[in-house]
Amino acid sequence: MSARSILVTGGAGFIGSHTCKQLAAAGYLPVVYDNLSRGNEKAVAWGPLVVGDIRDRGALERAIAGHRPQAVIHFAALAYVGESVSDPADYYSVNVAGTIAVLEAARANGIGNIIFSSSCATYGMPEALPVRETSSQNPISPYGRSKLMGEQIIKDHAAAYGTKYAILRYFNACGADPDGELGEWHTPETHLIPRVLMAASGMIEAIEVFGTDYETADGTCVRDYIHVGDLARAHLKALMHLEAGRKSLAVNLGTGRGVSIRQIMDAVERITSRPVPVMYKARRPGDPAGLFADPGLAREQLGFVAQLSDIDTIVRTAAPFFGLGPALRDSGASAAMPRALRAPRGANVNKKRRPARPAVGPVS
User: Which of 85, 87, 207, 225 is most buried per CB count within 10 Å?
Assistant: First the structure.
């Protein structure tokens, strides 16, 4: 259909949809393949949508035959660490068997470039900081293990069949489209920054902070937060890297800076002029005090440096999505955002509610 089309599995999800927008701006046609179990159909605005399961190789091959993509960006996966512990079979089915189906469908149709959405969860508990690509990969959850298996399968596939790959290990994805066209909303929402904003807006009672006695500057956990717009741009750079015939690679995508939970809450309060109610609780087993990347290899190999990932920019772009922040008052960004991509209004919660377990299926 187009010599510039790219198959994007999980392209209706958070990072996938932002990447599709950047692909389109660069002159590509993103063809989204997503089962919509957790993705949002209204986020597919820059190319066609094919609804299907990544474990269905026949459906994948029909999508490829119909659109003739020149590469695959593979986001589609299950991505809740806690859920992976309670339901590991689904995680291995989707994240491992699904990846094999994607690789085989691509190989059968002569597609030689694969970009894989991996995770810092493949490292497990870091032995030293910052985390480098040479650090030991010892994941501690079925989710992390499923992503590491995906990496290993892709490398074996490349050795046997000549596939070229870019494996991108994200640290903490966050933020929202600066233009206000896309945002972040998961069911259930487990990511820290959206939950802090939900607490500030009154959508939940309070943010829960697990542990205040870590060996960090303020006692709360430190993580590496990278804006979704930066992640999308890194995928575009990885695609161009492979198209230029350069070697396969596996790189971290982070900033190299750690930001604490307390610093995030302070930023939200300062930018939105709203207090963040908080409930302090005991540490959770397995939570490291700090986790942040060495971004040097991505800079060296891809020319990638995060540009939107200071905490103020992250909060300012995400806040309008939750009805908060000066950007909402000054620019009407949230009003311009498709309703289905905004956080639900009128969701003021005065007591705790347990979110329903989501339907299981491959998403990003």
Answer: 225
